Amino acid sequence: MSALDFSPQPGAAPLSSQVRAQARMETRLLLRNGEQLLLAVVIPVLVLIGGVVGLTHVDLSLTHRPVDELTPGVLALAIMSSAFTSVAIATGFERRYGVLKRLGASPLPRSGLLAGKVVALLVVEVLQVVLVSLVGLVLGWSPSWSVAGCLGFVLALVLGTASFASLGLFLAGTLRAEATLAVANLVYLLLLAGGAVVLPSSSYGAFGSVARWLPSGALGDAMRAAFLDGAVAWSSLPCLVGWALVGGYLTARTFSWE
Amino acid sequence: MSVPAEPAVEVRGLVMRYGDVVAVDGLDLTIERGTITAVLGPNGAGKTTTLETCEGYRRPQAGVVRVLGLDPVASRRDLLPRIGVMLQQGGAWGGVHAMEMLRHVASLHAHPLDVELLGTRLGLGDCGRTPYRRLSGGQQQRLGLAMAVVGRPELLFVDEPTAGMDPAARRTTWDLLRELRAAGVTVVLTTHYIEEAERLADQVHIIDHGRLVLSGTPAFLTHGGARRLEDVFLEKTGTVL
C-alpha cells in the first residue's frame, strides 16, 4: 500500500520560494545545455585569446593595448550571447514543448516566471563575467578602476541585458522554435562580426557611425568606456534604454505563451 | 468529506470559434463534486477547447463557465492552486529529468504530495537521467499526470490521460484516478477510449460538433449493460471513435 494521501490540500507556495525554485531550475537547465555553453563561454574566451594573439600582428590603430581593448568587448559579447541568443532559443523551445503553457496552469504567476528567468540569466552572466575577466587578467588585462567605471559596468550589464533579452523574447514569441534557433544564432554571428561589440565602433570606419547605434555597439562601447576610461558611457547607455523599450513594446504586443 | 451543493464545473451556453470553425457550439455541462466524469467525443468534437476554457486558458466567446464557483479567467490566480491540469502533450523542458521536473512543480505548491512516493507509484524512478525529449510517450504521459496531482488539487482536469500508455500503465492510471475520487477529488477526463469511460466514470457526457449529445451513468447509457457504450456512441454521433 502506498502512503500517498490524495485528500485535497491545495495552495500556492510563497511567491519568493516559487521564484527561487524557478530561478534554480532555469539556471541548471542553462548550464546543462552544451550548445548554450559553447555560445556563452567557449566562443567568447576563444575570441579573447585569438584576438589578443592576432592583434599583436595586425595594426588596427587602436588607442590601447589589444587586451585592454578586447576584454571589455568580449564581456559585452558574453552578455549578448546569454541575454539574446540563449534567452531566445530557450524560450522558443519552452513554447514548443508546452512548458510555458504548463507553468501557466501552476501557481507560478507570469511575473514570477519572468523574475525566475531574470535571476537565472544574471547568475549565468556573473559566471561569464568572472571567467572572461580571469582569462583577460591572465593575458595581461589591466582595467582602470574607478567608482564611475564600476557604475558604468553595472549599468551597461543591466541595460544591455534588458535590451537583448527583450529582443530575444520578441524573436521567440514570434517565430517557431527552429526558426528562432536559426535566426538567433545568425544574428549573434552577424553582430559578432559587424556589430562593434568586440572592437570599438570607431575601428569600423564609416560604418562605425551606424554600428554604435546597434545594441551590440552601444553595449560594447559602454563596456569599453567603463574599463578603459573608468567612465559611465552617457552617450551609449540611452541607446540601450531605447532598444529595451523597443524590444519590450514589441514583445508585449506579440508574445504568445503557447 | 462533505460535498458542497455547488457543482465542481458548470458550463452554460459555451461558444468557442477559431476563425470560421465552430469548436464549441452552445455547450451545457454540469459536473458534480467527488465524481469521475468522462467527456467522450470524436476528434474535433470540442473536448480540449472546453477543458482549456475551464482551466482559464481561453475566455468564453459566449456563455458562462464556473469552476469551483469561480470565473476561470477573472479569478485565475485564486483558482489555479486548487485545480490540477494534465495537458494532452508536452509540458516539460526538453532537457529536464522526469523526477527533477516533478520536484520543481511540487515546489510551487504549499502542501505537495511526497514526490518520491508519487514518482515510484507512477514508475518515474526508472526514467533516471534521461532527458524529457527522449522519454517514451507513455513515460511523458505519466509525468504529466504526476505533475497534475502533485499539488493536491480539489479538481483534476486530465486530457486523454492514457493515450500512448501500455496496458499496465493504463491500469495504474485508472487505479490512481479511482483513489483520487475516494479521497474526495473531482476528476474530469476526456478520452477516446470507450472502455476507459465505461470502467472509470460515474458520469459520461458524449459531445459532438461542440454540443452535448447525451449524458448519463455508464449503466444508464448502456441500458444496464444490455448495449455496448460504443454502439450508443456510434448511434448518437455517427462517428467511429
From TrEMBL, chain A:
GO biological processes: response to antibiotic
Name of this chain's protein: ABC transporter permease
Domain of life the protein comes from: Bacteria
Cellular component aspect of the GO annotation: ATP-binding cassette (ABC) transporter complex
GO molecular function, one term: ABC-type transporter activity
TM region(s), chain numbering: 37-58, 70-93, 114-139, 145-172, 179-199, 231-252
Localisation: Membrane
Species assigned in the record: Nocardioides islandensis
